[in-house]
Design brief:
CATH architecture of the largest domain: 3-Layer(aba) Sandwich
Order of helices and strands: HHEHEHEEHEEEHHEHEHEEEHEEHE
CATH class of the largest domain: Alpha Beta
Strand content: 25-35%
Structural class: alpha/beta
Number of domains: 3
Mean pLDDT: 91
Largest sheet: 6 strands, mixed
Number of helices: 11
Radius of gyration: 21 Å
Low-confidence stretches: 1-8
Helix content: 25-40%
CATH superfamily of the largest domain: Periplasmic binding protein-like II
Length: about 300
């Protein structure tokens, strides 16, 4: 039996979306409930970049919109979705806030990745000369900050891009626009003011796929492989240098390393890392063994096929 969230929670989540988005969210949620094995949860209103990524990565899926990252993760944990697709970093604006904290605590594993070329459009109920502010996710605002500044438009943060478009449609204030994927204008009945306004034409977001169980990665497979993990270094001199030495000596390429603080003491630095290879590779096993010796703990988040070659 599929474990579903209580009805009161579902109602609360539905009310979090702007009114123009609710009928679409309701239809998509109902469809996903009938076939949870095909459902892919994502954060945002219908039309968000995460929605686009879900359909690109899984063309036969039933996208399940969720208001927050936690809601999208919970949908998988509770069996209402087979997997979730979550943005983790952007080529212009860096990592997505909170994700590095949510992933280790989610109880889910990373089973894949997807790269999505991002297009931001400016949309509103009125005309270009009426717009004084633009509402969107902080990542989208950051990726368009130069364009907005040049055009005298003030940024206003909202939890997601397409959700901002729904709010703009609901408020019907011609001075407030939304930054969202171009298709959101049609979904919510807005005028498409500018079709592509990112600060650079190589704007790309990397998404990871989260599931309850990891698929087998031993033996021949799609490869090349990527392994993601988090760890905490010991609070001693040269701790990070010693922890990472095994990757260099064993020829393991580390493609990503980011630090973040857990708690308020600033004494325990944790790191998020991506490496090429998988634990069943001898050189990766040796590097991870050495990492474990020089750290307080190591937690593997997943091994999966690379969607795009590094380097």
């Amino acid at each position: 039996m599929i474990a579903c969230a209580p009805a009161t929670n579902a109602a609360t989540t539905m009310q979090s979306f702007a009114e123009p988005a609710r009928p679409i969210v309701a239809r998509m949620t109902a469809a996903a409930a009938l076939e949870p094995g095909r459902a892919v949860s994502f954060q945002g209103a219908p039309g968000a970049n995460s929605h686009v990524a879900a359909v690109e990565a899984f063309p036969e899926c039933l996208p399940l919109p969720c208001f927050s990252f936690t809601d999208a993760i919970d949908a998988v944990r509770e069996g209402r979705a087979d997997c979730a697709i979550i943005p983790i970093e952007n080529s212009l604006h860096g990592r997505v806030a909170d994700i590095h904290f949510l992933l280790p605590e989610s109880g889910l594993v990373i089973t894949g990745e997807h790269f999505l070329g991002i297009r931001h459009a400016l949309m509103a109920v009125g005309t270009r000369d009426q717009i004084t502010s633009a509402m969107s996710h902080e990542q989208a605002l950051g990726q368009c900050r130069h364009w907005l500044r040049e055009h005298g438009i003030a940024p206003v943060v909202y939890p997601d891009t397409a959700g901002a478009a729904a709010v703009v449609a609901e408020k019907a204030d011609p001075s407030v626009a939304a930054l969202a994927p171009p298709a959101a204008a049609g979904l919510y009945g807005l005028n498409l003011i500018e079709a592509d306004i990112a600060d650079a034409d190589h704007n790309t977001t990397r998404f990871v796929v989260l599931a309850r169980q990891a698929p087998p990665v031993e033996g021949p497979g799609p490869g090349p492989w990527m392994t993601t993990f988090v760890f905490e270094v010991k609070n001693i001199p040269a701790a990070l240098y010693k922890a990472l030495g095994g990757f260099a000596t064993n020829g393991v390429n580390m493609t990503k390393l980011e630090s973040y603080q857990q708690g308020g003491s600033f004494a325990a630095t944790q790191f998020y890392a991506d490496i090429e290879g998988r634990p069943s590779d001898a050189n990766v096993d040796r590097a991870l063994e050495e990492l474990g010796f020089h750290t307080k703990w190591v937690r593997l988040l997943g091994t999966y096929a690379q969607a795009r070659a590094r380097g």
